[in-house]
User: Which sequence fits this backbone?
C-alpha cells in the first residue's frame, strides 16, 4: 500500500470565507460496519505512555473511538482533569498508548480508542528515532545512547488559524457529507474523512481543536481572500427545459471535481507514501503514513487512515508539514539510508562533508555531533 484510495467520495463545490476554502466531500453510500464517535478530554495536555521508557506529550483535547461492533452508538465521554482544579496546576490527562482496544471485564470490545493526528505526529517524531546504528567517529555518546530523544515539533490549534473558526461555523453541512478538505490561501492544509454522515455532523466542530502546521497558520494570517467558486452556464440555444439546466449544472460540478482532483489536491493523492499498520479491526485497518520527503516539494503531508478490506479510505486525517519539517525528514531519511555515515551521505546528497555538518546543525540535531566535528571537516 502506497497511496490513498478515495473511491466513493465525491467533491462538492467549495465554500470560501476570506482566505479559507472548505471543499466538502460526500459519499453516496456510507461505509458499512464502521462508525466513529468523540471523546472530549477538555483543556490541558496529554501524556501518552508509548513504552516503559518512552512518552509522548502534546496538546490532546479529544480522542476518537472506532466502533465496528455494528451497534453504531453516538456518545461523548468527558475526561477528568488532574490537579483538583488548582489554578496553579497545568491540567494533564494520561493515556496508555496512542491506539488502544477497549475492554470490559477483561473481554475485548470491537472498539478502538485512538488519538487523532497524534498517531501521525508520533510517527514523524519517531522517524529514525534511535539515531546512529554504527558508532562512527562524528557522533556523540548522546547520539549513540539516546538517539534523537527528546524530539519536539511546533503546531497551532485550529482556533489560532485565522478565519477557520468562522468558516466552520457559518457554512452548511451538505446531505451525505462525510469529510472536508481545508485550504488556507488555496494551499491544502488538512483532509478529514469519516465513514458516515452522522459521524461527520458530530465531529465537524472538532476541526477547530485539531493541530495545523506552521505554514498553514502563516498562509491563513498573511494570505488575502481567495476567489469563490463560480459556475457559469452559457446558453447556446440548446437549453429549453429545467432538465437541460440541471444537466448543465451537474456538468459544472463534475468539471469542478475533476479540476480540483488534478490541481488542488493532487499532492495529497501522490502514490508514494510509506504506510505503517497500527491496528487491525476485523475487515478494517488503522494506518499511519509518511511522505517521501522529496527536496523541492513544498507540499507534503503526514496522516492516518482507516481502510476497508479493499484498501478504500473510510477515515482520514492529515497534517501539512512545513518546509523545515520536510528538510528534517529528508535529512534523517538520507542519513538512515547510508548507516549515518557522513561521508557517504554527503556524497549521495551531492554536497560536501562540511556542508552536511552545517545542515545537521541547522536542522536542530547539533547535540548528536561531537564537539569540533565542523572544525575537523575544514582541515
Assistant:
Amino acid at each position: 500500500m502506497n497511496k490513498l484510495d478515495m473511491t466513493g467520495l465525491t467533491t462538492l463545490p467549495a465554500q470560501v470565507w476570506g482566505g479559507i476554502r472548505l471543499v466538502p466531500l460526500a459519499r453516496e453510500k456510507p461505509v458499512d460496519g464502521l462508525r466513529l464517535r468523540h471523546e472530549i478530554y477538555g483543556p490541558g495536555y496529554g501524556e501518552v505512555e508509548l513504552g516503559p521508557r518512552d512518552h509522548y506529550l502534546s496538546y490532546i483535547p479529544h480522542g476518537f473511538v472506532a466502533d465496528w461492533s455494528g451497534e453504531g452508538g453516538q456518545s461523548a465521554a468527558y475526561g477528568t482533569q488532574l490537579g483538583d482544579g488548582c489554578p496553579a496546576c497545568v491540567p494533564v490527562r494520561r493515556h496508555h498508548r496512542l491506539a488502544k482496544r477497549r475492554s470490559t471485564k477483561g473481554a475485548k470490545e470491537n472498539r478502538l480508542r485512538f488519538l487523532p493526528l497524534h498517531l501521525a505526529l508520533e510517527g514523524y517524531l519517531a522517524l529514525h528515532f534511535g539515531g546512529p546504528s554504527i558508532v562512527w567517529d562524528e557522533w556523540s555518546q548522546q547520539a549513540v545512547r539516546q538517539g534523537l530523544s527528546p524530539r519536539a515539533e511546533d503546531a497551532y490549534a485550529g482556533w489560532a488559524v485565522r478565519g477557520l473558526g468562522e468558516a466552520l461555523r457559518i457554512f452548511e453541512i451538505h446531505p451525505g457529507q462525510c469529510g472536508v478538505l481545508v485550504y488556507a490561501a488555496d494551499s491544502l492544509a488538512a483532509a478529514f474523512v469519516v465513514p458516515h454522515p452522522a459521524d461527520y455532523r458530530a465531529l465537524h466542530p472538532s476541526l477547530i481543536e485539531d493541530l495545523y502546521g506552521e505554514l498553514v497558520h502563516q498562509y491563513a494570517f498573511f494570505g488575502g481572500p481567495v476567489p469563490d467558486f463560480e459556475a457559469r452556464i452559457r446558453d447556446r440555444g440548446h437549453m429549453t427545459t429545467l432538465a437541460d439546466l440541471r444537466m448543465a449544472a451537474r456538468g459544472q460540478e463534475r468539471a469542478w471535481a475533476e479540476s480540483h482532483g488534478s490541481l488542488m489536491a493532487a499532492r495529497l493523492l501522490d502514490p508514494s507514501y510509506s504506510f505503517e499498520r497500527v491496528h487491525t479491526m476485523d475487515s478494517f485497518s488503522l494506518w499511519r503514513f509518511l511522505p517521501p520527503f522529496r527536496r523541492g516539494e513544498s507540499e507534503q503531508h503526514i496522516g492516518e487512515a482507516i481502510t476497508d478490506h479493499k484498501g478504500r479510505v473510510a477515515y482520514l486525517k492529515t497534517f501539512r508539514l512545513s518546509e523545515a519539517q520536510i528538510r528534517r525528514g529528508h535529512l534523517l531519511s538520507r542519513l538512515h539510508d547510508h548507516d549515518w555515515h557522513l561521508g557517504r551521505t554527503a556524497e549521495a546528497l551531492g554536497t560536501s562533508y562540511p556542508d552536511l555538518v552545517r545542515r545537521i546543525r541547522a536542522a536542530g540535531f547539533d547535540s548528536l555531533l561531537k564537539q569540533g566535528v565542523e572544525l575537523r571537516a575544514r582541515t
